[in-house]
Structures
1.
Amino acid sequence: MKKALLLLFVFIFCNQIIVAQKETTVLSIKNTANAPTINKNIYGHFAEHLGRSIYGGFFVGDTSKIPNTAGVRNDVVAALKDLKIPNLRWPGGCFADTYHWKDGIGPKEERPTIVNQWWGGVTEDNSFGTHDFLNLCELLGTEPYLAGNMGSGTVQELADWVQYVNFNGKSPMSDLRIKNGRTAPWKVKIWGVGNEAWGCGGNMTADYYAGEYRKYATFMSDWSNTGGLMRVASGANSADYNWTETLMKNIPGNMLGGVALHHYSVIDWDKKGDGVDFTEDIYFRTMTQALKMEELVTKHSAIMDKYDPKKKIALVVDEWGGWYEVEKGSNPGFLYQQNTMRDAVLAGSTLNIFNNHADRVRMANLAQCVNVLQAVILTDKTKMLLTPTYHVMKMYSVHQDATLIPLTFESPLYTLNDKNLPAINISASKDAKGLTHVSLVNIDSKKENKIEIDIKELGIKNVTGTIITSTKLQDHNTFDNPTKIQPVIFKGFEIKKGKLEITIPPFSVVTLEGK
Ligand code: AHR
């Protein structure tokens, strides 16, 4: 009898160990030979002439009481410099295919006024134009990414724009630039050729766009100034794999620097849900859309691999982020929304996906930078706040230009209403100074999760950490309480016998640094 009891005890005890082991997610490191560099351009941003993105967000004019440099808000510039933004896309978006760049150069009082047909039908006085944008990029130390107008523009107009900003010799366009006060060219390397050509950019078919692209790209000369332009083709809408296939098949590789992809985490285009007031079910649906990015980049990359096995052409996810109903009482055409812990989890998860696909995803642009959609900065007249998404992007900036450490693990599940999502997503890299960074997201809204990493294998002895978390998923920063959510020191880990055991709280984002 005693023996039977002992056996029963041993059985229960062993079972508990097995259960306990299962509750810890164990990370293994995949073969690191040939691991790609995480291109810093994955951490790019987007500034469209939309709502209060440019006017009131970046630009207040040089007569404003808000401290500014040549009309650009100093607080916004300082915050973005701190974020180390590698590139900034402008002037759209849908706006780009209505934008005629010559409207935005020369004396401001002589610039024509147009109507912003896509975004609220408001008056655009063109007071922020090419010089203002490129000078802003210089101030930020970021690379400009200009989106050319293919939809309502001409081949000549786009070719002239390239010449205007890039040509160092004597030409009609460089003379005009010099007349407008800028002698040295700016050297703009990254150029979009149209935007959402399947929709607001002209409702084109993939075949038609591919033909047009070849024509436009032909006349976009480099002017021997940038070491080769990176021309980015307007890419697929989410899972439109035929679009990518058609472009890759019909455009010669030497004419393509990148193929774009747009994917927004929206639960229903007709009923997008509130940015702040949302249920767990809606959170789960938003995260389902966000994690779909994994499948999208995998499948679009596989198509690109067929035509470009050496991976010379980048997959450029130049619009991504959460899209909700506009904040109550705001202009529906301005796409102004708040930014909660849901957005922090969304951003961390998306950036982990991009990092892990760094061999092909070499550029991405969060939509958008200031006051529009999943913004990193919100402004209200003189006030400015940094959103949870800003803090995640800053924590993740350590991965810029670092070498990916490929990982494998089996994620525990986050279950709601009989539906499952992987609860944990992670990416890791080693930077030029030899520091290892691991970014982890727990999307589970209720359960903490445990993760174990063999740090001996990574050559790490000391670990420090930062976390973004809060008490409610809906928590966010407001102009009255702008620092409710901000990164704090993370101590939820222990080192035991060369293993790092991390406990990551519900809906939080952690970055660890090991040396
Ligand atoms: O980011 C807002 C809009 O979303 C962009 O202008 C367009 O490209 C996309 O449909």
2.
Amino acid sequence: MLQIYNTLSRQKEYFRPLHEGHVGMYVCGPTVYGDAHLGHARPAITFDLLFRYLTFLGYKVRYVRNITDVGHLEHDADEGEDKIAKKARLEQLEPMEVVQYYTNRYHHDMEQLNVLPPSIEPHASGHIIEQIAFVQKILDKGYAYVSNGSVYMDVEKYAKDYHYGKLSGRNLQDIVTETRELDGQDEKKHSYDFALWKKAAPEHIMHWPSPWSEGFPGWHMECSTMGCKYLGEEFDIHGGGMDLMFPHHEAEIAQSCAALGHDSVHYWMHNNMITIAGKKMGKSYNNFITLEQFFKGGHELLTKPFSPMTIRFFILMAHYRSTVDFSSEALEAAEKGLARMQEAYSRLMRLQPAGTSTVDTKGLRERCIEAMDDDLNSPIVISHLFESARAINTVYDGKGTVSSADLDELRAVWKTFAEDILGLRLSGDSSAADTHVSAYKGAVDMLLEMRLQAKRNKDFATSDTIRDRLVSLGFNIKDKKDGFEWTL
Ligand code: ZN
């Protein structure tokens, strides 16, 4: 039975859905003002693994992953320019052009990583009316106040009735010391109060009418609102990166408790962070590598490009709650590991059954399920598959045999765990590449045979043209007594 680590209780818990057979899960999606990078890949792949596994277990999953296209300011929630609006100003674009452009690119990157699309992908800007209603509920309950056209969460008042900081483990005093002194803070009663609605400054280009001012919702508001709208006031799982635990998710809990009297979420799940060559990822470190740079190469920290499947495999080789350090060397190792799996898979598909079996398939499926049930332990699943790859290679090399029943079971386990659950493309890429390679080899052989024929017919003009053209394309051609040899 599936156990997942609940960040809120700080322990593994048996997963029991609210409604039998159904799971509602919400994951914080990207703020679409720039290209997706590794920091986007990890939560996307982690919760894709969960989505795929829950589906495998037979649940009907409604997976909501939002697009943040308004309200995410440069300094987290409350201060600075809106990230989308800033990009739009710099590029002289309509903000929704920025949103559409980067959303399309995000989708393309996710498709490359074989991350399945969510069931619903709501935009914050498409849910302004719902967010205003949510803010009003919090005001009505007395946990927020209006100040100069903006609405702020009254954290002190809230903390008297509820536990503010229960997710991140911070107390109000820690938060006071951490909260920076920022402009606009004079509007707030306390530095730790956060915006539910912000009055737009005159130069701010994204704003909507509200009972309090022409403005825009606070960043945390969209997730509370859209989670409730699509999954109900209580739902099963909320996920995201650990960096979102505070203030974003802590604020979401406060908003839901203030408005509804209870938290919406039963299981809070967080993936750990990625470092690059030991350093935290960030623009200032110059280690901010976009996914496209991984796929196509061209970043100074990368020795070469790495395929999307290598990135996916590398992320899955670590448990989602441990940190992952990216380096070219580590990725090259992952690339080799993935190639071994792809080779074993392709051999598995070509094995012929025998009357007897030296391969023990008993328990392989159960061991994989056991690992996934243990808080999605993907590295253990991968190690079981590697073990079975050794058995496949033994049979392939003629040092063992596999019965028809065992062969069927092996193929089914690999299909289910490697392809369907881990989401690795093991055959598609390589077999397409194989087809290309054999087609071009056949074409070169055909040309050289035509050249041979021309020579026999003493048509040296034709035979020379064929040779010269192939040489200019980079082929080395050696004439032999009985034919030819060529290399590229
Ligand atoms: Zn969120």
